[in-house]
Amino acid sequence: MADMLTNAPGEGGLSEGGGAFLGGAVPAATGLFGGVLDQAIFQPQQNRASGRQAAQIDPFLDSLMALGEQVGSGGD
Amino acid sequence: MGKLELVHGRARNWTDEQMRIVNEGIEATQSTVPTLEGTFDSFLVLDGDTPVGLVSIIPTSNPEAVEVGVRFWTRNNVAGRVMARGLQDLFTRFNYIIARCYANNMIVRRLVQRAGFILLGTYREHGRSLHVYGCRKTDFERVAPKGVLRNG
Fold first, then answer.
1. How far is the C-alpha of A14 from the C-alpha of A40, rounded, in Å?
2. Hey, is the C-beta of B119 within 8 angstroms of any chain A C-beta?
3. What is the pLDDT of residue B39?
4. A49-70 confidence digits (pLDDT tens)
5. Which residues have a Cβ under 8 Å from the Cβ of B76 and sit 6 or more positions away?
6. Contact A68 B40 (CB under 8 A)
7. What is the per-residue pLDDT for B121?
8. Residue A16: left (phi > 0), alpha (psi -120 to 50), or beta?
9. What is the DSSP letter of A33?
10. ipTM of the shown complex
11. Which of A30, A53, A70 to mutate to test the interface with B (most CBs of B within 10 A)?
C-alpha cells in the first residue's frame, strides 16, 4: 500500500516511498502541526529513519551543526 | 484560497475525492522527490478542503534535528506560506532541520532557500544528483518573512 492514501484501519494509510503512518490515536483537527507532534514524532522506537537514510544525512547534519559552532564562537 | 492547514494523515477520515486528489498528486510527483525510508509522519497540506501537498517529518540520529520532505502538486503561493508556518512550529521543538531535493527540482529548491535553508552539499543516488539543505533555528528566525508567519 505504499504511496496511497486510504481510510482503511490498520493499513498504515498514506505513505511516501514505503514509509507509513504510525498506529494509535491522533487528536482530531490539528492544524499546522499543532498537537500531533508530541504523540507522533517523539516515539523514537516506532518512528525513526532507516540506517541507510541516517548514513546519508549524518555527514550533512554534522556540517550544519559545525557551522553553528563556528558562527557561535565568532565575534568579540 | 481557503484556510491553510497541515493535518496529520490519520487525524481525519478523508473523503473519496480528497483521497483521489492526494493519490493522483503523489503519483504525479513521484519522480520529483527523493524516496524517504524508515517510518515517519506525513501531513496533508489543505487549502480549505482541497489537498494541495504533503509534508513528511523524519527523525534523524540527532535529537535536535529532523528531516522534512515536501511535495506540492499545485502551483500557487500556498507553498511558501505553509512551509514557513510549519517550520515555525518545528523550530519550537528542534534546532536543526534538513531537507533534500533533486538538483533539477527548482520549485522545491526555491522554496527551501526562501525559508532560510543553505546548501550543505550534494550527492548522487540512482544516477541523480541530490541537494542537501539545512536550516538552523536562528537563521530561520532571521530570514523568514514576518508577514508570512503572522498571516500564515
1. 15
2. no
3. 62
4. 556 666 778 889 999 988 866 6
5. B1, B52
6. no
7. 94
8. beta
9. T
10. 0.73
11. A53
Contact criterion met (CB below 8 Å) for A3 and A15? yes
Burial class (CB in 10 A: 0-12, 13-18, 19+), B69: buried
Across A29-38, A57-66, B115-124, least confident range: A29-38
3-state helix vs strand vs coil in chain A, percent to 5: 35, 0, 65
Are B7 and A14 a contacting pair at CB < 8 A?
Answer: no
The answer to whether the Cβ–Cβ distance between B41 and A6 falls below 8 Å is no
For residue B11, what is its C-alpha cell?
A: 487525524
Nearest-CB residue to A47 (from B11, B13, B39): B39
Q: CB A48: neighbour CB atoms within 10 A?
A: 18
Q: Residue A55: phi, psi to the nearest 5?
A: -65, -35
Cell digits of residue B141: 528566525
The C-alpha angle with vertex B38 and arms to B87 and B61, in degrees rounded to 5, equals 65
Closest CA to B74 of B136, B33, B24: B24
Give the predicted TM-score (pTM) of the model. Answer: 0.72
Mutate to test the interface with A, among B57, B58, B91, B136 (most CBs of A within 10 A): B58
